[in-house]
Amino acid sequence: MTIHDVRCDGCGSFLAGPAAGVRFVFHPGVPDLRDDSGLTCSACWDRLTGHLVLAATGRCAACGAPASRGESLHLRSFTDHQSWRLCASDAVGFLNSLRTVQPKLDLATFRFPGTPGGA
Ligand SMILES: [Zn+2]
Ligand SMILES: [Zn+2]
């Protein structure tokens, strides 16, 4: 596990340490590509995930669209066992709201790596 800086991924404010914020884990349907270095302040975490619901399996947690295992972003806080799934559009929206995601993703060209041959 590596935490490169202890600034919020959302607003950039300094955190007193990883324990002062919310650590989160995500992967794009391919567990090998798991990124467990996410960290936001609790205000940003609420802003980013407050609208998400643990929807029925296979549904996007933001909009309810079908989101299959390999074609969704799997996101959870470090201490949570259940992960949200985000469809491509909501995944791009989420990732682009993180400071550390550079360059920003383009929904038009975004593909989940688990998608056979791209969609
Ligand atoms: Zn923040
Ligand atoms: Zn969605």
Explain this structure to me?
By secondary structure, the chain is α+β, with helices and mostly antiparallel strands. The chain has a domain at 18-96. 14% of the residues lie in helices and 17% in strands. It is built from 2 helices and 4 strands, in the order E-E-H-E-E-H. It has helices spanning 42-49, 88-96, and strands at residues 22-27, 35-40, 73-77, 84-86. Strands 2-1-3-4 form a 4-stranded antiparallel sheet. Strand 1 and strand 2 form a beta hairpin. The longest helix is centred in the C-terminal third of the chain and has 9 residues, at 88-96. It is globular, with a radius of gyration of 14 Å. The N and C termini lie far apart (32 Å). The mean pLDDT is 90. One zinc ion (ZN) is lined by residues 60, 62-63, 65, 86-87, 89-90.
